[in-house]
Amino acid sequence: MRKNGNDDNTKKEDATDHLDPVEHVEMEADLHSDSENTSQDDGEDYQRGTWSRKTDFILSVVGYSVGVSNIWRFPYLCMKNGGGAFLIPFFFFLIFCGIPLFFLELCIGQFSGVSSIFVWRICPLFQGLGYLMVIVSFLMSWYYITVLVWVLYFLYNSFFSPLPWSVCTNDWNTIYCIKTRQKINGNLSDYNGTVAALTTNGTISGTWNQTADLNSWNASWSGLAVNQTTTESMINHSQLRTAAKEFWQYEVLRLSGGLDEPGSIQLHLFICLLLAWILVFFCLMKGVKSVGKVVYITAVLPYILLTTFLIRGLMLPGSLDGIKYYLIPDWAKLLDYQVWLEAGIQVFYSLGPAWGGLITMSSYNKFHNNCLRDALVGSLADGLTSFYAGFVIFAVLGYMAEEAGLTIKEVADSGPGLALVAYPEAITKLPYPQVWAVMFFLMLLTLGIDSQFGTFETVSSGLVDAFPKQLGKRKVLLTAMLCTAMFIIGLPFTTNGGMYLFQLVDWYAASLCVLITCFLECIIVGWIYGAERFSRDVELMLGRPVWLIFRICWCIITPLVMLVAFIITLTQYQPPTYEDYTYPGFARALGVILSFIPLIPLPVTMVYLLVKTEGSLWERLRLLTAPSPDWGPHINKYKKSYHSEKNCLDTQPFLIQAQHNILGSWVKPR
User: Fold this and answer.
1) Fewer CB under 10 Å: which end of the chain, C or N?
2) 619 within some domain
C-alpha cells in the first residue's frame, strides 16, 4: 500500500543525511520515481534507459546465465566426474564463489549506474578491468554466435521428412554410414543400399574389432551408380559412423583436414550467420527496452520445452537406467582434484561473472531494486537448470543405450556433439521426429540468443557510456554497426576449417581472464575499497545489512579459490584438441596470444595513470586506489552525503582494519 507522500519524503531525507538505509525495501519501491527523476535531470537515465519492469531484468539475468552449456556440458561433466558426487563440488563452488561474485557484480553495477568500463572508478588504478571485460565480451559475442549458426541450420533441416540425419541416402554420406549406434557381432554380409544405407540380417551386438567381407553390395556415390561384387572389400568397425555424425561433419561443418586448411566460406553457414546477426539486431536495437520484451519468450520457452522433453523421455524404455547412471555417486571421484577444478570452471563459465554482462545489465536497474533477490534467483536458476537438464539428457541417453545394446558412456558425447549429434540421433527414434526436432533446436536457439544479449550489450553500453553525446541517441545505428562488424569478422567460422577455429577460440578466449578478473574484483571490493564500506553502500540500496557470508567470501574464500584455480590451470595446461585432431604449434601459440590480449589494457592503464598522476609513488598509489570523485551512487540525492563520508578505518592498524572489514558490526574498531 502506498504511504503518505510527505511522510515518505521526510523519512527519505533522514536516510540521505545520515547515509542510513530505509526501513524496508518495499517502501523504497514506492519512492523510485522521486529518486530516479533526480538522476534524469542530468540526462543519464534518458540516455541509458532503465528496465521497464523488475521481471524484465530478472528474466534477462536468468537468460544470460542459462545457456547451451547447461545442456551440452554439465550433464557430460556430471557423468564423467562421479555422477551425483559431482554435485557436491558443483554446488560448493556455486554457493561460495558463484553467488557471491554474482551478487557483487549486480550490486556494483546497480549502485553506480554505469557500464563495466566506468564502474572501476571505484579503484582507478584498476580501470583497465573495464576494458578487459569489454574485450572478453566482444570475443564471446564474436565466436559464440557460431553456435546459433549451427542451430539455425539444424532448425531449417528439421522441417524435412525424413530428417536428413536419420538416413544414409544423402549425397554427403559415405559407405561407412549406419543409421544409429550399434555394436557389431560377426561378419557383415548381404549389404544392399544406396551409398551406405546398409542393412544386415544378423544381430548387431557385442564388441567387434575385426574386418568383414562385403558381398554383393550396390552403391551410388556422388551421383555415379556403381555395381560391385567383391569378397575382398574390407571395413573396420571403427570406421563406421552414424547418420547424425556424418550430417554434422560432412553437411553442417563440411570439415577440412585441419586449421591450416581453412577452405572456402560455406554458403549455408554464411546465410545462417547473416540471419543470426539480423535476429540479434532486432532483439537489441533499442537496448534494454527491446530486450525486456524478448526475454519473456527466450527465457521462459526453454523451461517449457525442457519439461516437455523430460516427460516424453521418461516414457521411453531404458530412460530410468540413464537417470540412475546420472545420479548414482562415485564417491571416490571426490578425491580427484580435477573433478573439483572442472566443477569450478563450469560454475564460472556458466554464470558469466567477469565478462561485464552482469554489471552492464544491473546498471539499468533502479537504485533500490532488490538485487540480492535477483542474484539468488539468477545463480540458483543456472545451477538448478543444469541439474534439471541432466535428467532430460540422460533419460534419452538411457533409451539410446538400450536400443543399441551399448553402455550409456558409449552413446554420450561431450560438448557440441551431445546437443548436435547424440540428441538429434535420439529424436529420429521418436514418433513425429520433425516436431521434436523443431522443439529441440528452438530451445537451443532461445538459450543461445539469451546469452548473446548480455555480452553484446556490454560492448554497446560501454561505447555509449564512453561517448554519450555522440552515441546516446544513436543506439539503433550503433547496434547495426556492431552487428555488421561482427558478422564480417565472424566469416572465418563459416569456412571448412571453422570448427577448428571455434574450438581454439573457445579453449583460450576467456580462460585465464575470467579467473584473474574474479580474483581482482574480490581484492578491489573486499580489501582496497573495503567490504565494510561496500556493505554500507549495498545496505543503502537494499535497506538491510549484507549477509556475513558474502563478506567472508568476498574477502577470503572466493579470492583464495580463484588463486588456486589459476595456479592449477597454469600447471595442468592441456593443448587444445578436436576429436582426433591435434593442433599444430602455430595454432597453440596463437591461442596463448589470444588469451592474453584482453589482459593488455590492465597494465597499460596502470602505467599510464601512475605516470600521469603527480606526487611520490606512495602518494600516487594512495590516490589511485581511492574512489575517483565521480564514483558513487547514481542518485543525485545521495551523492553529496556519500562523498562527505570518511572512512573510519584509515588510521587503524591493519589487523584491526581487516577484522572490522570482514566482520563489520560483529567487531567494533577500536
Assistant:
1) N
2) no
